[in-house]
Fold this protein.
Amino acid sequence: MLTPNLTVSPEGHLLINGADTVALAKQHGTPLYVMDEDMIRESCRGYNDVLRDEYAGKGLICYASKAFSCKEIYRIVDSEGLGADCISDGEMYTALSAGMPAEKIVLHGNSKTDTELRMAVEKGIGRIVCDNLSELARLNAIAGEMGRQPKVLLRVKPGIDAHTHEFVQTGKIDSKFGFALETGEALAAVEAASAYENLNLAGLHCHIGSQILETEPFAAAARVMLGFMAEIREKLGLTLPELNLGGGPGIRYTEEDDPKPFGEIVRAILGAVKATCAECSFPEPYVLFEPGRSIVGGAGLTLYTVMAKKTIPNIRTYVLVDGGMCDNPRYALYQSRYEALIANRADQPRSETVTVGGKCCESGDLIGEHMPLQPAEDGDILAVLATGAYNYSMAMNYNRNPRAEVVMVKNGEARTVVRRESYEDLVRNDL
Ligand code: LLP
């Protein structure tokens, strides 16, 4: 199995953290997202352990909630000592309503609205990661009006392309996020931000990408960022005390994937931070990380009911399910690969190769192609694995499909954490 929390019962049913997925599908209906709370907590602890062991705990892990956002996840990560990375007023609102302390929240966004900036300043959001000069000017004005001085980090493009097979330092400046180093734009932004009287410039931020399987691009980014912090000290006489190194560690989506464990990645990053600080005689900064996928991705799966099977001779076999791109748009968007199995016959070999199709009126509404699967029959429960990140959070209502329910399993016991949308929910805002 893809992750150790997935097992098969004597009757051949797929279990997640001890809970029978076939029984869950029957009780809660499908499509259904099922998340393993114990695995999520274990990952949170794993991150905190490395930070404590390698860096005396001088930092904060902020769960990147774009990966999966609902009130319960903020409560869970908060109780494990994590903060949250939010990217919108909606995520901030959800986090705050769940009781996440404002000072543990980092606000992101390359196009923040005044509403978002006002909310952040008014609620006392711990760190605002500023992306561009217009935002700095607007935030300074808003903070001045409110008589506050929010803590600001600046988003920098470290020029590392982590997605090529052998990562390269491209000096890539064509990204909508942040200030480029090479052009001098980042240094100018630091100078501008430090001159604003209502902003408390505390440090820098970078994020080199997502689903990154190797350690080296992360370590390289840390070296670049610290080198830049040393340059800022030299040129502007400013010693910035904080460095946020973003998220990005990858997870196993298929049997072939072999990502470096996040613990190894964080250890390599912290090693690079310490070594570069020693080289530049720069004080070790307070560090922040923003992992999303590696905390929730492998902890979730999605259950569907097989509605029909269609074999097109010499072409392909479709297994058609009662969900699809509305609950998981990742194949349609990125041709992302997943493992799937028939949850009620999980002990049998996956002897067929199929295309799993969704219910939307859209040919591209697929969960995957060339997927090995047990011979499917109408009424079977199909489980798609490793859907905990960027599935529920990217769900949509195309064709007025109500968004699916989310259950969380702790110690073998499941409870609903997000209700299934009702027909009334669908028309709530229609006039
Ligand atoms: N911090 C920042 C500033 C980010 O932009 C992201 C992700 C993260 C942290 C969390 O990255 P993670 O640890 O989850 O890799 N929808 C895409 C993924 C988009 C990621 C965007 N930013 C997908 O489904 O693969």
